[in-house]
Amino acid sequence: MYPQVEPTARALMDRRVLAVAPGRRVTDAAEAVRRARAELLVVGGGLAVTRSDLERASRWGLGKLCASALAWRGLPTVSARTPEVRVRRLLLGGTPMILVREGRHVVGVIDGARVDVAHPALSIAHRLDRPASRWDEDGLWLCRVAGKVGEGLGAPVFAVGGFARDLLLDRPPADVDLLVAGDGVAFARRLSEEVGGRVAVHREFGTASIEGARGAGGAFVGRVDIASARRERYERPGALPTVSAATVDEDLRRRDFSVNAMAMALSPSAFGRLLDPLGGQRDLKRRRLRPLCPLSFVEDPTRIFRAARYAARLGFRLDPTAVPALRLGLGVAPYPALSGQRLRAELDLLMAEPTGWRGVELVLSWGGLSLWDHGYRASSRGRTRLRASRRLCAWARREGVALDWSEVALIALLADQRPSVATRCLTRLAVTGEPFVALRAGVGAHALARRLGGAAALAPSRVADLLRSCPPPVLVGVWLHGDRYARRRVEWFLGRGRAMRPRLSGTDVVALGVEPGPEVGRCLEALRRLRLDGVLVTLNQERGFVTQWLATRRVT
């Protein structure tokens, strides 16, 4: 008989660990790790920094940062004698790394990406039939067809993005993003033969989309986005990544938050099986958004806006590990490689959500608008204006008045800033031409707001004269800067005054004797002003006015 020896953490750990005192800069730490041939730097006995993160930060020109700013925090710790089964249980829960201690010293690390862990075959397909998360039959049919097509091509297919997340939250999936363990473009072309639609290919990213796909009943299922499993490399902070082929597990590990790093298998033999290598289920239960690495917001600063969008939509909070990552992402700004169009698109996406206003408030509270300009400063007056702009949009929705919510939010966010800061923010967001002029005028509409304000009587025609040449952003700015009287007058103009016209047309006044040409315009303008002021109400009154007007013109 041989003695039974239970495997321990020692068998899984990587001993290439270097401990240093706090305060080391990234450049020095990266060189020390390279010389020691270590994979992990332990700072001050508790913070862990990976070699790959140190090398990336050095490559990006962030060598003067403290290495501890790149640290993974809250990592579980075990002893070298901890049973392997317990270690694997921690890895199954999605922890990225485990530190191994002997006494007071970290002697090794267990990297979840390098340890083969057999995840249980958990299926979530049954959730598609729950009343709260019931999905339309055409979308479900498309998923099953996609799985069969992938099986035929020898390329497993998964529904990723928010699909698995929403199912686990008992919410109907909003859309379908497909991940292919193979050639996503070839798969998209083959799938379109089954579901119809037009294929658009984005070969530099290994992605494609199908516009106009139809379900089993012939109904349109909207756009289907398809991507090959890939890894990403960011050459500069904020730049679009270069991509290369990877496994599905590697693809999930390059995503933004753990709750979005899950996938559901669509292959007929495994339909509904959940892949969750990074603990997305655990964070869903905790209702937290956890970025997947300390450099997450540096890689892609637009994730700050995305975090606000998800937090507002799902009612989640930032995970404690996200706070230093967010601080790091904002601390290394500006991002020359991050285009203004991408920043503006994130605001548009945020304001397209029913919970968009809450998302904007979160970005503001996190200091995220320093990405627009380093001089941006949040203020109590700005927060008050933001809440007011939300009321303006609620009023517009009730009254059927069309407003661009993204423009309203932008004006509210810039209205309390110094003019130079507001101008730089608009420039950073790549706003140009007439939109730039209109938005800047809306942000600085103080003087016009004062002219429209006050309790003194102001004829409706005078209000219309002041506002009718103003583009919508200026009307919004006047409302935000104005007192309650100015706001009522802007609302009247938007809801009624702007559209008010004489009952008589140009043809009508010519038939009554007005000479064709400029006189027709003058007559109609006089009719409009009197109708605005309530002097002329009926059609007969307008005809009578035209008769008097003609008599007056003949005398003069």
List keywords for this structure.
7-stranded mixed sheet; single chain; Hydrophobic Seed Protein; CBS-domain; 556 residues; Beta Polymerase, domain 2; 24 helices; 3-stranded mixed sheet; 13% strand; 46% helix; alpha/beta
Can you offer a commentary on this structure?
With 556 residues, the chain is an alpha/beta fold. It has 5 domains: 9-111, CBS-domain, CATH 3.10.580; 119-285, Beta Polymerase, domain 2 (2-Layer Sandwich); 287-334 and 341-366, Hydrophobic Seed Protein; 372-499, cca-adding enzyme, domain 2 (Orthogonal Bundle), CATH 1.10.3090.10; 506-555, no CATH class. 46% of the residues lie in helices and 13% in strands. The strands form 5 sheets. The chain has a 7-stranded mixed sheet with strand order 9-10-11-8-7-14-15. It is elongated. The termini are far apart.
Q: What's the arrangement of secondary structure elements?
A:
Blueprint: E1 17-20, H1 26-36, E2 40-43, E3 47-50, H2 51-59, E4 77-79, H3 84-92, E5 97-102, E6 105-111, H4 137-153, E7 157-160, H5 162-168, E8 177-180, H6 184-195, E9 198-202, E10 207-214, E11 220-228, E12 230-233, E13 242-245, H7 248-253, E14 263-265, E15 274-275, H8 280-286, E16 288-289, H9 296-299, H10 303-314, E17 317-318, H11 322-331, H12 340-351, H13 356-366, H14 380-399, H15 405-414, H16 419-428, H17 433-443, H18 446-452, H19 460-467, H20 472-481, H21 484-495, H22 506-511, H23 518-532, H24 539-555
Parallel strand pairs: 1-2, 4-5, 8-11, 16-17
Antiparallel strand pairs: 2-3, 5-6, 7-8, 7-14, 9-10, 10-11, 12-13, 14-15
